[in-house]
User: Fold this.
Amino acid sequence: MEYKTPQFFHLMQYAAAADGDVIDMVSGNPDWEPPEAIRKGLHRYADSDASEFQYPPSDGLKPLKHEIAERRAVDPDRIIITNGTGEANYLGMARGLESDRGDTCVLIDPVYPYYLGKTSMLGGQPRLVEANRDGTLDSADTCEAITDDTALVVLNTPNNPTGAVYDLEAIRAVVETAADHDALVVVDEVYDHFDLSGTFESALTLEADNVIVTSGVSKSMAITGFRVGYGIFPPALVDAAKTRHMLTNVTTSRPAQQAVYNAYRESTPAYYQAARDRLCGRIEAFTDGLDAAGAEYTTPDGGFYVLARFEGFPGTMDNVKTLIDEAGVAGMPGATFGTARAEWIRFALVTPRTAQAAERLVSYFDAR
Assistant:
């Protein structure tokens, strides 16, 4: 078993050790307040009887599962509460790659690198399919890449790193082609609350028995440290996923689940709208700066990431470190996300210093 360690932490450590002030645009940690009900829920939990401090059900607190089920219009028995969306993706990918279907996993390039890592860790072989220029799903090329050797397809919408929101009909075509080859499709929808286009539609609406949908609240509730995610599995796949979850983690943190349940019950849509409004302002400020710097870039329809390409300055690890040292801005090299955007740099707009970062980039590239 050989797989590369993700480079996120390496760059964050490099930026932290830099001599000057550095604006972190590497990590995807939201910088705004979580819903007020999160803190209230934790306080309530702290005052609970000691019996409430023991193991919760392995597949998740029943009230939380029912709350998610109602929101996603699915049977709660299909839901497993996981340690973040990352574990939900792991459970879904493992279910595909442990089968006798084959060992190939079709991934969309540029690709969130943890999908590549999980594929290798699970003994699979990645097959990268380049996204359209705007980051949307190229359903024709993706369907062509699916063969009898394909065990799994992984999609992510809204997408990290491109910010694209996939068209539901394009997803449907991939799901149907995968079904023809007895392959599973994992659709990671963790950024669904950050749909800035109003066009996002969940793959759950397809009602396909070869689709596993994953999501979580790390980003949407600004609580990345709580590690509460979930997977929604077809009925025939639930028991095996529950067993793997139990053997891997036993269960998921009870106080975190209780706080999330309270936040679901007590928060209003205004909380999520405020986050989207904040991001829209940051996207405008940052892309204005990229225009001034003469960069090509993606404008996200969802999520909070921007990919940018600077003429004569490919997004290599060395150049990204140069930006840290000389411009005071930390991004991620495009090669981290596959081959299709290797010359680009990804910036996360979850910092109140987004406009300042844009100004620093303009100054740096003006001086080159």
Summary: The longest strand covers residues 150-156. The chain is about 40% helix and 15% strand. The radius of gyration is 20 Å. The chain has two domains: 8-34+270-367, 51-266.
